[in-house]
Amino acid sequence: MESRFRVLFLILAAQLALSGCAATKNLFGFGGDEAPPPTAEPSGQVIDPEVERRDVKEPRIDKENFEIGAFAGIMSIEDFGTDLAYGARFAYHLTEGFFVEGTAGQTEAGLTSFEELSGGARLFEDRTLTYYNLNLGYNILPGEGFIGESRAYNTQFYLIAGLGSTEFADDDRFTVNFGAGLRLLLNDAWTLRFDFRDHLYDIDILGEEKTVHNLEGTLGFTFFF
Amino acid sequence: MSEPSITTIRSTPRPTSFFRVACLALFTLLAIFPGQARAARELRAVAVADPYLEMHTGPGRGYPIFHVVDRGETVEIIKQRTSWFLVRDADGDEGWVDQAQMELTLNPDGSEVGFKRADLADFTNSKWEIGTLAGDFGGANIVSLYGSYSLNPHVSLEVWGSQILGNFSNGWTASANVVHETWPDRRVSPFFTLGAGIIRTEPKSTIIQGEDRDDQVGHAGAGFRVYMTRRFLFRAEYRTHVVFTSRNDNEEVEEWKVGFAFFF
User: Fold this and answer.
1) Residue A158 lies in a domain
2) Full pLDDT tens readout for chain A, 225 residues
3) How far apart are CA B83 and CA B75, in angstroms?
4) Which of the residues A90, A118, A172, A222 would you substitute to probe the B interface, choosing the one with the greatest number of B C-beta atoms within 10 Å?
5) Is A11 a member of any domain?
6) Which structural domain, as residue segments, surrounds residue A184?
7) How far is residue B264 from each of residues A92, A223, B122, B190, B232, measured CA to CA in Å?
8) Among candidates A154, A156, A223 on the partner chain, residue whose Cβ is nearest the Cβ of B33
């Protein structure tokens, strides 16, 4: 061990002694500022390679992969009628095809036939249904929509599916949702979105446990930023 | 279930003010934002070095090419969406150009333009990660969202929030954990995790008359991350939890889940 230290020390001492040497200067980070001697231009070169180098800091490119928006439409709660639904969504576009999206929305439950006929007896009091879900979407079938003769809008048809939770009838319910939609690209930042989803969860409020389908159709605006 | 009066049908309670305010705020933001988006800003300019640059009408392969910019001309980059660039040429024509073509352009100083595309190296070295997973938590369904910060390629810190949806009880958990990746540079990267948090259990009132409980929980687990494409990864993991209950016995819960995440 000791002999190794001695060797290292000797190497260091030798390098310091030879500090005039260019290799050592560079080793310790001194010097090296001098430009290398200009190489002789090869004869017969047609283009004079004198390009003026400008040190410019390139402005950052504005990346717009996030999409945020609000929507409104109708949602049908199985056995509880159909009512206005509204909510908000937030998406991140990973590639031209894939995007991930979180959505939250709510609607009001109407009366079941049982509640109508029984004359006032309610199955539960809080009639609000709220849901959230986390989804993966894929833009498929890009296209164009034409309005009249001189207007064309780019469109994106997408498929989307995900998981989440629905708070309804005093309980949180694990919910699977899937659907499809259409984005109409109004300009480079704004889109108009039509969205159709089916929300599935298990519920036993009317006796037997069953899987229900809540269909939702909404229209909304989103903004890319 | 309380019996309402037969004579007067009560109107539906609407405890929705927060939600409405949130929606309103969002709309307001949307109304204000676009005005600022196009504020005078210096745009990055590149010169076309390929025979021509193809401008599409939209940010996608399927949208038609409506204009080409010739070699030698300069275009300004207005914005980027995924791998598409909105550019404007000297005549003021604006169109979307694919990244593959943009990479063949030159900077004003004549050097090549390098637009970085996320790859396996970013998968290993990226600092931030957000993902969502779902699976089984001791027989109940679980939906999770997490955020992760890498201290180095091997070690990262994560924060998780999960909702548990079961037949007999629902609940929430929030936890923080440390993840160690053994071979972070591989496409399939296994990891081990250790952490702690809290769990809130809300028994379903229709089945059992239980009280809501908050307990501390510790967990250990293992799993793997798989690099898919660009910023995208698949993640699967197994965890075993010990819930430190206020009762005499601690409760052990097994959890597995799969999902996807992206890094940036």
Assistant:
1) yes
2) 556 666 666 666 555 555 544 444 444 444 444 455 555 555 566 766 666 665 666 777 888 889 999 999 999 998 888 999 999 999 998 888 889 999 999 999 888 888 888 877 788 888 899 999 999 999 998 888 888 888 888 999 999 999 998 998 888 888 999 999 999 988 888 999 999 999 999 888 888 888 999 999 999 999 998
3) 17
4) A172
5) no
6) 66-224
7) 12, 21, 8, 20, 10
8) A223
Q: Residue range B114-130: average pLDDT?
A: 84
Determine, yes or no, domain membership for A180: yes
Does the residue B90 lie in any domain? yes
For A121, B11, B46, B78, the CA distances from A114, given in Å and listed in that order, are 9, 18, 69, 59
SS3 B194: strand
A9 found inside a domain = no
Shared domain for B133 and B85, answered yes or no, is: no
B79 and A87: CB-CB below 8 Å? no
Q: In this structure, are B205 and B240 located in the same domain?
A: yes
Domain that includes residue B134, residue range: 122-263
Nearest to A221 by CA among A30, A81, A89, A56: A89
Position B13: which residue type?
P
Looking at the structure, tell me whether residues B162 and B88 fall in a common domain.
no
Stretch B125-146: mean pLDDT, rounded?
90
**B224/B175 same-domain check:** yes
CA pseudo-torsion sign A17, A20, A23, A29: positive
- Within a 13 Å sphere around the CA of B65, how many CA atoms are in the beta-carbon half? 9
Nearest to B77 among A61, A120, A221 (CB): A61
Tallying the residues shown for chain A, one arrives at 225
- Residue B217 CA to residue B233 CA, distance in Å, equals 28
Which DSSP state fits B26?
H
The complex scores an ipTM of 0.72
- Average pLDDT for B232-260: 89
Q: Are residues B197 and B89 in the same domain?
A: no
Claim to verify: residue B63 and residue B132 sit in the same structural domain: no
Considering its fold, how many domains does chain B have in total? 2
Query: Looking at residue A125, which CATH number applies to its domain?
Result: 2.40.160.20
Query: Which chain B residues are Cβ-neighbours of A171 within 8 angstroms?
Result: 170, 204, 206
Query: pLDDT tens across B182-241, in order?
Result: 998 899 999 999 999 999 988 876 655 667 788 899 999 999 999 988 788 999 999 999
Point out the residue among A62, A143, A224 whose CB comes nearest to the CB of B62.
A143
Phi, psi values for residue B218, rounded to 5°: -120, 150
Total domains, chain A = 1
* Global pTM value: 0.72
